[in-house]
Amino acid sequence: MSEKSSAGLPALSKSMIWMINFGFLGVQTAFTLQSSQMSRIFQTIGADPNNLGWFFILPPLAGLIVQPIVGYYSDRTWAPKLGGRRLPYLILGTLVAVIVMLLLPNSGSFGFGYGSLAALWFGAITVAFLDLSSNVAMQPFKMMVGDMVNDDQKSYAYGIQSFLSNTGAVLAAIFPFLLTWLGVANTAKKGVVPQSVVVSFYVGAALLIITSAFTVFRVKEYDPATYARYHGIEESDNTQGGNWFTLLKQAPKAFWTVTLVQFFCWFAFQYLWTYSAGAIAKNVWNTTNATSAAYQAAGNWYGVLAAVQSIAAVVCSYILAKVPNKYHKAGYATTLLLGALGFISVFFIHSQGALIISFVLVGIAWAGMNTYPLTIVTNALSGKHMGTYLGLFNGSICLPQIVASLASFALFPLLGSSQVNMFLLAGIVLACGALSVTTIKETFAE
């Protein structure tokens, strides 16, 4: 660890870079179970499809609030007995997330009644807590790469993070389908979430504990003095704090141009998570009845398609990691355009198998969204307020999801109250994201 990069940080072993990121596998499994199954859970317990946007506002709202706070305070935290500055937040977030993962899929099993306000509120509150805790657990991984990995290794580190993220997504997506194949019930009485989904959340909770433990026990963060020395800053730079609005005003241009691209991307993907199960059920299984076996089969198939999306993202991420810096913008725009085509194709496809092609294209866009933004932004930042800036940058993910959910209350009825039509809109929005890549100007390490 004596070799230094131009940024002053030592080169890390590949095994240490893996350990820094390993817990992200469990966190992403939890996140994907939530995003891929939330629409199914809420419609199963009696939510009106026209009101799904309300439930999908909660996760990004939690991220918008929590991640800047985690970044701000973890910049100033030093708790060596708990691992350092970022790891204490990982421990807290993991513990809360595990508890909530045991509660959320049982929203319809506590006798509240189908479609009752109590059942929907219980589901909404548990989703809010799951996303709060997932955000607390997720942000430390992004920050530790910025804290500990030099510019020469950063693309590799974020590539590993993307690989683990998508692997977790694959596992989460196929759990219900696999459990059904193994004989676990995929249907239940009206208003009750099937055991295939419930057990999937239990397995995800166990995976979250195990993978996070690897990171907590194997990673030793830099103490404040060492961090300051490696980043070429004063030790007091992070302890002095900083007004969020002032920091945003001083943010590099790359921060804002990538934020513009992120707006279109995450707006589109919010509709993927909200309407996929219903759109697939309508186009392929010809049903809109969320309590039917056909609808539950569509929900399982969406899980498989989400796995296809993640596998495509893993392969594409490996390819993108080898693209020279000067072609980053071309690669970014191309992946988003292919994803837009995938979204639009869902509108026209009525074949279960053909949807695989659609979600391969969506996965390519997902790879671009997870490969480029953090690398571009962290390369443009100094070590000052690294956590706070990355927390604030999370607003480029959360705000578009909130806007998309709020807009859905007008757009959904305007587009014929059709979940399929929302995919057509999402594809157009993602294409706008591809065009906005031209506004980015990158800063590369010397």
TrEMBL record:
The keyword Metal-binding does not apply. Gene3D superfamilies: MFS general substrate transporter like domains. Keywords: Membrane, Transmembrane, Transmembrane helix, Transport. It is a multi-pass membrane protein. It is found in: Cell membrane. The chain crosses the membrane at residues 12-33, 53-74, 86-104, 110-134, 155-179, 199-219, 254-273, 301-321, 330-349, 355-377, 389-414, 420-440. PANTHER family: SOLUTE CARRIER FAMILY 45 MEMBER 3 ISOFORM X1, SUGAR TRANSPORTER. This is SLC45 family MFS transporter. It comes from Limosilactobacillus alvi.
